[in-house]
C-alpha cells in the first residue's frame, strides 16, 4: 500500500462522512476529482480551506460568516424589531432564499431534547432573552421545524416570553404551494382545515 | 452579499459538480462541514490539496499515484506476463478490491466512440501495443465494460493483436454471485446459457 493510496483512502473516508454521500459515492467523487486535479480538485480544496479558516459563528445571532458579527446583524436596515428564531444555519439560509423576511435572525443551534439532554442553556436561549431587551425586539417569529422537538422548543420559548410584552408568532401551517391533498399527511390536512380562512 | 457568502457559494457550486451530488445536497454538505470547521472541514481540505498536488498518472499504465511509475508497475512480483486492460482507474480499483488478479494493468482512459470522435490514439492503445513487446506480455485480459462502446473497443484490440502470438481473453459473462434469475436481463441469461459449463 503506497502513501498515495493511503492519502486517497483518507480522503474517501472523510468525504463519505458528508450527508448524502456513502463510501461508494465518495469513492466515485474522489476518482472524478483525481481525473480533474488541476481544474477542479485543487481549486475546490483551496476554496474549502479558505472558508474553513475564515468562517466563524456570529456572536449575536449564531449565523456563519467571516466576521464576528454577521452581515445581517451588522446591517442597520434589518433592525426592524422582528426576530426570526430558527433551529440552525440551514434554516436561516432557507428563509433568506425565500427573500421575504427583512428582520434579523436568532439561531438556536438545535432543539430542546430530553432524550439527548439538550436544555435551554445549550441552545442560545439565554442569549435570545438578552437580545430582546438589548435590541428593542417587538415580535419573535418562531420558524422552528414542525417536529415534536421543534414544537416543544417553540412552546418553551413562548412560555419564557409570556408577560414580556413581546409578540410571539409562528409560521402558518397548511397546504404547501403546489401541494396535492392526496399526497399530504393527515396532520397537515387537519392543520390546514383548523386554520382555514375566508376566500 | 458578503465575501464569505460568495466564497461559500463558490464552494457549494464546486461540490455540486461532483457525481452523486446536486445543488441541494452540496449545500447540505457544506453546512455540515461549516458546523465542523476544525474537526472535519480543514483536515478534508488539506487532505484534498495534498492529493491534488502529489497525484499523477503512471507513465506506464495510466493508474493514478504519487510516482511517475505506480506501485503496481514498480512491483517486479507483478510482472507475471498478464496484462489486464481496463477503461479507467475506477475499474482498476475495482479489480484490485477483488484482490484476485496478480498481474499488471493498462488503463485505456475511455472507450472507442465514433459519436464522441474517440479513436485509438486518444486511448493509450499505441502504448498498449508497445508494452506487449517491451514487457514480454503473454496474455491480455480485456476487462472492459459490457457496453456497446466497451465491446467495440475489445474487438478493436483483439483485432490489432491477432497474429502477435499474445493470448487475448475477456472476463466471463454470466449470472453474478448472489444474482436472482428473475431480476436478470435477457442478455445476461442468454450469455450465461451459451457459456454453460458442466457441473
From TrEMBL, chains A, B:
Residue intervals of the Toprim domain: 81-166
Zinc finger C4-type: from-to: 58-73
Keyword list, A-Z: DNA damage, DNA recombination, DNA repair, Metal-binding, Zinc, Zinc-finger
Function: May play a role in DNA repair. It seems to be involved in an RecBC-independent recombinational process of DNA repair. It may act with RecF and RecO.
Protein name listed in UniProt: Recombination protein RecR
Matches recorded under PANTHER family: RECOMBINATION PROTEIN RECR
HAMAP family: RecR
Pfam families (alphabetical): RecR_C, RecR_HhH, RecR_ZnF, Toprim_4
Family of the protein in this entry: Belongs to the RecR family.
